[in-house]
Amino acid sequence: MKKERILIVGVELSTDTINIDNSMDELEELVNAAMGKVIERIVQRRDSIDPAYFIGRGKAKEIKNFCEELDIDTVVFNDELSGAQLRNLEKIIDIKIIDRTNLILDIFANRASSKEGKLQVKLAQLKYRLPRLVGFRDYLSREGGGIGTRGPGEQKLETDRRHILREITNIEKALKEAEKTRDMKRKKRKDSNLPIVALVGYTNAGKSTLLNKIINMNEEQNESKQVFVYDMLFATLDTSLRRGKLPNGQVFLITDTVGFVSKLPTHLIEAFKGTLEEVRFADLIIHVVDGSNEDLDIQIQTTMEILKELKVLDKPIITVFNKMDKVNKDNLLFDSKYIDDKIFISSRNGTNLEQLLQLIQDKLPIKYKDVVLRIPYNNQHLVNYFLENYNIDNIEYKEEGTEIKLNINLTDYVNYKEYIIEI
Question: Which of 51, 87, 124, 177 might form a disulfide with 135, Cβ 3.0–4.6 angstroms?
Answer without folding.
Answer: 87
